[in-house]
Write a structure and sequence with these properties.
By secondary structure, the chain is of the alpha+beta class. It has one domain: GTP Cyclohydrolase I, domain 2 (2-Layer Sandwich), CATH 3.30.1130. The chain contains three helices and four strands, in the order E-H-E-H-H-E-E. It has a four-stranded antiparallel sheet. The longest helix has 15 residues. The radius of gyration is 16 Å and the shape is elongated. The two termini are 14 Å apart.
Length: 118
């Protein structure tokens, strides 16, 4: 089993339930972990034999541009797109954090995690 991760990817986006959130935007941090069984010799040193984390970033970036009310919807769409591009993946974990959510008290972040097992 091989695990490929992309942690701490930062985005500015307009996700949120309240209209002000969709107008003003906010900072988000994304963590992605994927696990798969290699089907070839990894010592061949070929990018096509693994999950390219640059592609994971591009998938996430495209979904972050699509304004949504719920973080769950964003995280699930990212996981679905990863599954579509890399059908051989056994497990996908996407955690999306909203920094400084608009609450009455000081909160570092709120987050949702979507786990998708094959």
């Amino acid at each position: 089993m091989i695990k490929v991760s992309l942690h701490g990817a930062e985005f500015f986006a307009y996700h949120g339930f309240y209209p002000e959130e969709q107008l003003l935007g906010n900072k988000f941090v994304l963590d992605i972990d994927v696990e798969f069984d290699p089907t070839s010799d990894m010592t061949a040193d070929e990018i096509g034999d693994t999950v390219n984390y640059e592609q994971l970033y591009h998938i996430a970036g495209a979904e972050m541009k699509q304004t949504r009310k719920l973080l769950e919807a964003v995280a699930q769409s990212i996981a679905d797109d990863i599954r579509s591009d890399f059908p051989f993946i056994n497990k996908i974990r996407v955690e999306l954090k909203k920094l400084n959510p608009p609450l009455k008290g000081r909160v570092a972040y709120s987050s949702v995690t979507v786990t998708n097992d094959k």
